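Folding follows sequence. Below is one example:
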Amino acid sequence: MPVYVDCNATTPVEPELEQEFLRYIREEFGNAGSRTHEFGTRAKQAVQRARDQVAAVVNCQREEVIFTSGATESNNLALLGLRDHAEKTGRKHIISTAIEHKAVLEPLEFLAGHGFNVTLLRPGAGGSVSAEQVAAALQPDTLLVSVMHVNNETGVIQPLDDIGKALATHEAFFHVDAAQGFGKRLTELQSPRLDLISISGHKIYAPKGIGALVTRRRGYERPPLTPLTFGGGQERGLRPGTLPVALIVALGKAAELAARDHQKRASHNELIKRAALEAFKKIGGVPTGDQSKTIPSTFNVAVPGLDSEAVMLALKELVAISNGSACTSQNYTASHVLTAMNLPEDHIKGALRFSWCHLTPEVDWEAICATVRSLK
């Protein structure tokens, strides 16, 4: 089997949480909404414990954590959930970036088609936008600023702290798609200026199908979200439906482990990245973005003169990788992220994304680069 090096698409499940997850499928299968018996009580307690575990990573209160099916739903709830408030207040300007995931760009496109004014900031060649760009784009009627934490294709970290400072005197809500950064970088997401944070379980070694939206209060006021679905009133009325207790337990445990092992995982991933950089340097590989601003678990690189599709085909026996976001890989088109960075067409066509984690076995970078070299 090839070595799996596509962890930005999805991660393996953390072995340390598997048994707890299975226990809540096989034994503790109660409905957290059942209040008349012990099965329901234990399920509710498990959900509350998971809220605490997720909340601890971003330094918020348990009641500010809303469980969802993943970051895509969280993004939709954060963006579309503010629509009614925008209509009532007349604040219909939104600032975001041209390098966001489709789970942000497509809801924004929907809002733009319904009378909203959306400003998409373009990054520099290094792959990040700046706080100065955000500040310059602010208007009196700006409702929301939505900037991702870590880009899923390049691994470039966006300057959330600086953007938060730029918003210090403005009432715009600040939303962050933290699918790729939650549990990997801790301090930025703990800022009280972040009003809404989208989280996905399957990016931090929990099963697919679970995530959360952090709805941080300002003083005593919650972000004025309205639900997108109705029926049952769960999750403070914002996300109705029977809670998937086993998945929630898994997300909570994954969050706890991410906080506990953060430094150890980062050190392990940095060693892998160093080896990747050194190997590709020998064959003329050109890294994508400012490598000093990337997370240690992602490496996007292009080899001049080579097409990424041909390279992936040649490497399929060695590694499982991608050339962009999994949401568009079934119908490949030029990366909107790399295009927004204004990179040369040759680089865009040749870009490969390697992404790994603490569970990744040893990667034979020399064999990978020897195969790539043979295609030149």
In short: The chain has a mean pLDDT of 96. The domain at 15-260 is CATH 3.40.640.10 (Aspartate Aminotransferase; domain 2). The longest helix spans residues 38-58.
